[in-house]
Amino acid sequence: MDLSFSSPLVRSTERRVFGERALKSGLNLEEFDVFARIGKAEVDLSGVLGLGTIAADRLYEFYEKNGSLPASGKLK
Predict the structure, then answer these.
(1) pLDDT digits (tens, 9 = 90+) for 25-68
(2) Which of 20, 34, 47, 67 supports an S-S bond with 10, CB 3.0-4.6 Å?
């Protein structure tokens, strides 16, 4: 899954790749800094993980209903 977000939960609008594609991409993995002095809820990754989970669920529902991925690349 390849997403970008436009949401108050995620400040950065850069593309993010999820799942097996992300692991095979060779790109740096985004992870929480457990030693940071800021709360995890204040880091973009918290919003990315929440919204990514919702997007994956909607994509799965779409596929189950239609037998294919959305042609436009966008779900409503």
Answers:
(1) 998 888 998 898 998 888 999 999 999 999 999 999 999 999 99
(2) 47
